[in-house]
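Board notes (copied after class):
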Amino acid sequence: MSDRLWLVVPAAGQGRRMGADRPKQYLPLAGRTVLACTLARLHAALPEARLCLCLDPDDPYFDPAWVPFADWRRAPGGAERVDSVVAALAAIAQEAADDDLVLVHDVARPCVTVEDLARLVATLADDAVGGLLAAPVADTMKRDDGAGRVAATESREGLWHALTPQGFRFGPLRRALDAALARGLPVTDEASAVEAAGQAPRLVAGRRDNLKITHPEDLALAELVLLAQQQAAQAASSTPEAPPAGANSA
């Protein structure tokens, strides 16, 4: 399989649920924008990847200085996430091989860790289907009755929260998305299109702090997560290395 890696980052959403004066990817986070934080985290883990960034054609906020990747290009974002991903795959079609690995990551997930990104790529290196970061459901799950009351308690056994990145080979992913859209199927993520094509994506356990900024309170939570991750990294780097077992401590 090809070891060439592509990153697709849909960043054309309007983020209306944030109630802000601009799309959420341009809101301030840890001294930068959400978009800049996300791209910096991806670059820290995968600096050699080729990036395709999906932006609104009339985007007045984007600054190319936020892109740390040496090899990147811009694609027109669509009305829905899937439209942006389809446009990105079309934009790289002349360069990408059928078996190149493509990771699609939400721009609103700036807290994904370098370790999770590296583990996902390593896990999918020889996987013919592909897969996604995900976290097992930990909460009790309720199904509503359509009128704001509980209809049933659902078993959480075997349920996972789908996260991103989600990674699949370029050719199969493009064909799966095209087929799902042609059938009028709802495509909420790349894995759902691959599942509709009869494949079973691999679940790669990821950290629960890989949160998606959707509501106003998520922005403050993401800032706390980034700070905690930075402090943990600094503490780990400053911890003295333990002496070998049996070493003379005198």
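Comment from the instructor: The first strand starts at residue 5 and ends at 10. The domain at 5-234 is CATH 3.90.550.10 (Spore Coat Polysaccharide Biosynthesis Protein SpsA; Chain A).
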